[in-house]
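README: folding subset

This subset contains proteins for which both the sequence and a predicted structure token string are available. Records are stored as plain text. Below is the entry for Inner-membrane translocator (269 residues), shown exactly as it appears on disk.
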Amino acid sequence: INFAHGDVYMISAYLAAIGLAVLSFFGVESFPFLILGTLIFTIVVTGVYGFVIERVAYKPLRNSTRLAPLISAIGISLILQNYAQISQGARQQGVPTLLEGAWRFEVGSGFVQITYTKIFILIAAFVGMGVLTYIIKYTKLGRMCRATQQDRKMASILGINTDRVISYVFIIGAAMAALAGVLITMNYGTFDFYAGFIIGIKAFTAAVLGGIGSLPGAMLGGLILGVAESQFSGLINSDYKDVFSFGLLVLILIFRPQGLLGRPLVAKV
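--- output ---
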């Protein structure tokens, strides 16, 4: 588990802002070109970050104890936070609204209004998850990833370059973090150097809720967590929604550690 993943997302938020600023400087105003250019730039550069992090912080510890990569991940997380704070400043930063307008429809005596930005985010998230699912389930790289995850030693004996596969996994993970960074930055409009910590914990909560290792489970967990947080904020107090998320994580780990779609691990003798 890469506990520095949230801070890779944070870096991608800064990269998204830089990409938007550069494209706007050169006169690009059309939303499709703005978002496409920003996505390509952010995904490529964040992928490089993911590759470097894997090579520097994880590969040297491949055969060490399980605690060593965890400590290394915490160190990388702190390095990325301080790097962003020093290079970009401690103040909260933001981006302008890229997609104006909303879709509104009547429901009984009231109405429901969804901004075009949120509709785009929902579609992009489904497309991103669909692409990732296709890669993992139906491509040669995906089969190598699954084989390495199940038994790295046996995969290596069968001729799979497991070091390269793990590097690819970090690059793909960073690319997905970049997609999330662009979309969430579009939604909230603001971010800072500390944004990755909370997002990382919530992503971990969603993965645990759905079932570690299950892509549909991660998506289901994220959806359930988001809806639960919204309901909690409306009914109780939005100031405590993070406490609610962390409490939910503790309850899941106690009562159903395999998650909703995960399966209990069976030790084979």
